[in-house]
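Researcher: Batch entry, complex prediction.
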Amino acid sequence: MIAGGTSANPVEYALPGSGRSRFAGIMIVLRDIISRPVGAIGLFLVVFHLLLAVIASFIAPYDVALQNADRILQAPSWAHPMGTDSLGRDVFSRTITGGRISIIITLISAVIAALWGGIVGVSLGLVGGRIDEFCMRLVDAFLAIPGLLFLLLIVSFTGGGVYALIPTLSFFNGISVIRIGRGAAQGVAVKDYITAARVRGHGSRFIIFQEMLPNLQDILLVEWAMRWSWMMLAFSSLSFLGFGATPPTPDWGLMISDSREFLTVAPWAGIWPAIFLSTLIIGINLFADALGKALRVDRQQGVF
Amino acid sequence: MLRILLRRLVMAVFTLIFVAIVVFGVTEALPGDACTAYLGKLAQGERLSNCQSELGLDKSSIERFVGWSGNVLHGDLGDSLKRKRPISDIIAPRFRNTIILGASAALIGIPLAIVLGVIAGVYRDRLSDHVVSGIALLAMTIPEFVIATVLIFIFAISLKWFPAVTILPTEASVAEILPNIILPMFTLAFVMTAHILRITRASVIDTMSSEFVKMATLKGVPFRRIIFRHMLPSALLPTINIVALTMAWLLSGVVVIEKVFNYPGLGTLIIQSIFDRDLPLVQAIALMFAVIYIAVNLIADFLVILLNPRLRTKVSAGGG
Amino acid sequence: MERLIHLDDLSVGIEAGVAAPTPILRGITLDVQPNEILGLVGESGSGKSTVALSMMGYLAPGLELFGGEAIFDNVSMFDLDRKGLEALRGGEICLVPQNAGHSLTPTMTIGRQIEESLALHTDLPPADRKKTVTDLLSQVRLPSPEQIRDRHPHELSGGQQQRCAIAMALAGRPRVLLLDEPTTGLDVTTQVHILELLKDLCRASGVAMVFVSHDLGAVARISDRVAVLYAGELMELGTSSEILKNPSHPYTRGLLTSIPKMDGARIPEALPGYPPRLSATRSACAFAPRCAHRKEICLNESPPLHRPANASMVRCHFDSGNFPHSSYQGAPRPPAADNQMQKLLELQDLAISYDRPGLLSRLTGQEDKQRVLTVNNLSFVLNKGETIAVVGESGSGKSTILRAIVGLIPPCNGSMRIEGEEALDCITEARSLQCKKDIQMIFQNPDSSLNPRKTIAEILSAPLQLYFDMERTEAIDKASELLESVRLTRDYLGRTPDQLSGGEKQRVGIARAFAAQPILALCDEVTSALDVSVQAAVLELLSKLQKENGVAYLFVSHDLATVRAIADRVLVLYQGRICEIGPVDAVYKPAFHPYTEALMEAVLEPDPDAQSHVEISDIVETAPPDSGCPFQLRCQRKVGKICNEVAPPAQSVSGHTIFCHIDRDRLFQLQDE
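Model: Structure tokens for the complex:
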């Protein structure tokens, strides 16, 4: 019901999801998301965190790396609304900037993962046969090993720092997307319109990009959101374990890890980053849920 | 039916072979080799060449892969670089500890998840569903280390019921480990319950809207009987497989949870060995995790085949 | 008058959410009497199933009672509590569902499901239940009931599942049986068996039935009275012979004339337009937009239900007995084209198999031995501008032939040629663009054949851009021409398939095929997914396009009546082997191949006096027999051992060819016996 109108200009019809109608489509989906309480909360949390990541350095009252030996583990006060940590750094400034690095890395990685995994998965679903069988065995093998192990291994051995995580996260998450994309593509590949295109003589590229992907983009979009949430979890776990962001950088996982020693005396140093981290991941999940409902994507399997 | 079982078994073996290739391939693809990584700045001269010949790094990767997998088949996982001991000796007690943790969490989590999932699914969109699903969402989205830290804060620090971290030797007896296992077990069970619950709920909702549940209603079957006799057998079957697939995710969680509680299992060991850059040990543990995952999935497959009348009987007439 | 069920001004609709409440049923008043079979007829969206289910006090999720009552035996069903409903449903009032395959619980054996009904609704002691289950299963004429009892639903064929569902309903010793499209989706020969069974049950046990169907033929065969529903309103109600022989309402009349007839070689007259969509309000006759007799008042006022003298109850502003009966006898079939004798498509000894030889059998060189040949020994020639209809039940391999011709599966033996030169035994990808352009396919299910994410303009441009390298604007202009040729307006260009009705979608599918200017169009059951009133229009359109473009059709169908109207020659297929081929007039006259005869018997014409005498069994074969005649297992005129051992010879009988062991003269005599 997205396209429509009865304009007389024939050229306008031809544009697939032409500018105006695609924009209208996005607005319809957004309105649907907001109309659900779950979606509204999710969207708010996601937008809040994204905005905060952008403007954090402008509103942070202190330098995030500024240590102050006189102000160690201070309780929240007017000067330090969230208190200070064990090195006397301002927890508020560090918390609002603490999501930036993880959000940038996971957002980029999730887009790459959804794209490459989606295209490979859809192709496999269309092609089928022995190639598909072989590739799926390989996918199963990758999925058999906890993803976190690969991340730990590659981060610690390549020494490329957090940015080495972008290709790593994209690669291993893309493999999960292959599975989803392939399953969905198999459902579309048996439709008569795909048979019609094949019989007409269109090439695989036309069939994948013109006929199949438009029907799978919604599933991949929801999958992207789920992958993003998974990556946020993975990234913060890595930081928590000491393999992610490196010390002076403010990062939620790292801050929670650092604060554990002082949990009894200064819980604020850990609580705030934990709340921020959790609300972002919850927000992404609620958003993904509402997005799935708005796009009528049936995603049964939860996060994994 | 036997043919299907056999086919699944063969597929599992293939997956395992692929896993071995992937594990070996990924470690191989890392810059440098096991020795340069392990020795770091000391990687030069005699030290390096000794180490390399010890690991057989002078041979081609294919030769080494064949040799390594051959040894693995014989139960020989090689020696740890750092600890200079056979890896199997190091892993064995840790493996036991991880299995104890995982199994006890599963024992609590799976029944709880199924009961709650069915309740949430059957009473969809009612208060009980919203409460259960809401908590499940929190459990799935809040990182395990945050949950663990909160539990430590409440039960270990404030209430002092359980120890916060384990300070036992790896080989401690099961009785000694027990009090230490409770907090990590609950953390794991909490996360596990959330995952399985959501899958169960979705499957129940799906089955509740099926034609045959509608037919049972129109046949005058009482509600309870519809749930237990008509709906649940069909709803729970597919969840078995999906639950097994979430194992990979849960195993990642095990690594983090073990680390938080300093629990002497495979998870803490692999993190330590990565810190130590002890590649042979890393490979071995990764392989162990994969074996657990594949075994669980195989068991799930077998269960489904045994329980599903569609797969149990071979005869299948076409419709029409 | 005694009445078992009474619907009183029943209105049901979609819950008021964001939009205004939308009625599905509007003020239905209807009675069911003891011992009668009431037929409920309507097209998709008419609300016929909703009517039947509301008799059990059941509304599908999302539906709400707007007003009125459903009374069963003096009990108001919508006022009953859960306990009360549980006691009645499955007991005194039972449902036979549309799709038994989906409606039987997959994890329980047939026996346990029937026993459950016995336990819930009878006071039979548990020890006797097993025996009763077996009795019930044999009552619905299932072979070896003891075995069926221990089977799970998926182990049975569609016909068997439907019989089990009927047995399960009978287990509750019902006074009323609600049958919701019980034969839809079954093969024609099976359908006749089930209808006969139901009729006999009604006669023997005196149970009343409500038979819901879209198929006037099936309704005619079984019902005592018929109610015609259209867009949620009761349009006409009367005895079978009133409704089917002398209908009053213009809709009923149109519906009857639009059904293809076995005796007329003409395309039936189509009802114009499409059924209305759901809407919140209605201030006119629902049928007015499609009605040939509409006047001013029809568009402004809803007509009341009234009974004109000597006729059925009818909802019309006019005493429709006065409407002149249409003198139109259906469009004549296009005359055979001049170039009739030019060969277009030649199939020679074609064999097709879906089995791929496994690695092992390929190594040992035993490729062909275990392969099941879905189609075998198929030879025929299709001339230019000609229509050959391929007729057979599901599993006959008729669609497989089309798939082979377009190159979706390569044949494993034999040859296919188009225009005498280009060989077609390669897959689509290996063919020339010209060849792909020349052969186009039209699909059965319009919902699946159009990409839901594309506009009609994009759908129609794809072949134009592919074959003719058209610029986009040029393609759009051409697309609107194409739309006009299938009688749609250019307004449709910007719409997506979900904004179209089934009939409109099928027209777009036809336009897409004709965009390529093909010389051969393959039609795969193109009318069977459509509403009855729209089918004739599609046939008429295909015939018009053939006249204009000189295209040849290979028209696959399960329905001999549909085929009669459009085909020049008919090919009857069973298990992928030809039974009979010849000009349409010869095939529809004796002598028949025994299978053709059975198919003819199975055609349900909307004639309440018709009697069927089916003789072939309705077992489902999953693979053709290894040797002999493909029809040996079910043949009612089997000669003897020779049928099992020797492939039947081709005999030329009065212009058509029959593959049968029975002597041609004997075949003629058989019809008279």
